[in-house]
Request: fold
Amino acid sequence: MSGSDHRGGHAVVVGGGLAGVTTALELADAGIEVTLLEGRPRLGGLAFSFKRGELTVDNGQHVYLRCCTAYRWFLDRVRGAELAPLQRRLDVPVLDVAHPGGPRLGRLRRSALPVPLHLAGSLARYPHLSLAERARVGRAALALRRLDPADPALDGLDFATWLGRYGQSARTIEALWDLVGIATLNATAEQSSLGLAAMVFKTGLLSENGAADIGWARVPLGDLHDSLARKALDAAGVRTALRTRVTNISRTQSGGWLVRTEEETIPADTVVLAVPQREAHGLLPAGALADPDKLLDIGTAPILNVHVVYDRKVLKQPFFAALGSPVQWVFDRTDASGLTDGGQYLALSQSVAQDDIDEPVSLLRGKYLPELERLLPAARGAKVRDFFVTRERTATFAPTPGVGRLRPGARTDTPGLYLAGAWTATGWPATMESAVRSGLNAAHAALAALGRPRQHPLQEAA
Ligand SMILES: Cc1cc2nc3c(=O)[nH]c(=O)nc-3n(C[C@H](O)[C@H](O)[C@H](O)COP(=O)(O)OP(=O)(O)OC[C@H]3O[C@@H](n4cnc5c(N)ncnc54)[C@H](O)[C@@H]3O)c2cc1C
Reply:
């Protein structure tokens, strides 16, 4: 396969996660002949679904925000936007079960007012902070607005120290900053680079009035990231090979590339490695990056999902966040999973899961079921029909201070070879948004080198 009849030659994209699928679509849309190679039997990488009896289960609850313009472009591109709609307006129920007067519900909501007033009313009424704490949040938010997340100096600092400097108490960090930050960064404020935290909070809460409105799939993730993605790739003329692990890539004398799998050797003019950082390190030819070992210094962090099927409905809201409990975020996945017999299926999304990730199911059951009964009175009389966990040990890169120095851009030092993946230098933490942005960045860099710059609606992502 040489692709000689296509202007721009043949591109091979390695890795069929969101980054690789995006790269393949964007290159194919520009008229390049593309082959996409994925080691697993499905597309979607870290955001996928599987069958468990009658249930279709996501490996992990995924949400996105209205400000995730690249991921929203992706949803549109694969014709999946209405299957993963956004809230009309941000509204997060936050239930504190440690409140001395008994469980107390608060809400983080926005109004239709302009930034930053859109959150002021909700903050003023947020019951989980004292009056003084709420006032100090306002001051920190204004200071956050003045930060430039791309400033390399911020990358080396940690978010908790900065929050402390702006008078944020341990309670404010727990009930507000970490409540959001743990779920979006997969790290506590102490563990997070100030640059990445500023990126999340500034873009999500302080850029546009609706920026933090939450969206999530009402169908299994695999419907979006595998089935619909595959359909879009096929329609764009991409050759997709699943169960096809790339074992080696090498440069030819004439400046092209050979991509080796266990089955075949594929010649290519352009190669995009859209695989996790460790795999990218293993495949990069000598000289492609000045200091390739930096990729191995990018740490990873786990996410655990706890799945519970009750024999009846125990939660009325589509989701909520918990305080004063090891439970973090709880989502109702009943409809999405295909459960139709009157039971309810809840998924608990547990980020920063270092303490739980290797614990046996029996221990996790003993830990989380009583907590759910504490949070949801209706769960007390309900029968648990199924309990299981999904463990993603390397769910995200760890957004530790200094990680920005380690993340390479899309271009390597070798012509025709590019990198993509949520872990590359997109300015975003390890999210679907970062993955899609990285894919667009890699595709645009490749197209520019081929003399085929393309004005994409999200060109600013590059
Ligand atoms: C449990 C969990 C919850 C999450 N929650 C959220 C959330 O709520 N919101 C959000 O935005 N993000 C969330 N994320 C993060 C998000 O899923 C990832 O950032 C994103 O999917 C990464 O996409 P990627 O394409 O960069 O990498 P990956 O998904 O890792 O894709 C890389 C692909 O490369 C393939 N591959 C590797 N080596 C080879 C090889 N040699 N040959 C061929 N193929 C190869 C892999 O099989 C894989 O499919 C979550 C992640 C997890 C695990």
In short: Confidence is low (pLDDT under 50) at residues 1-5.
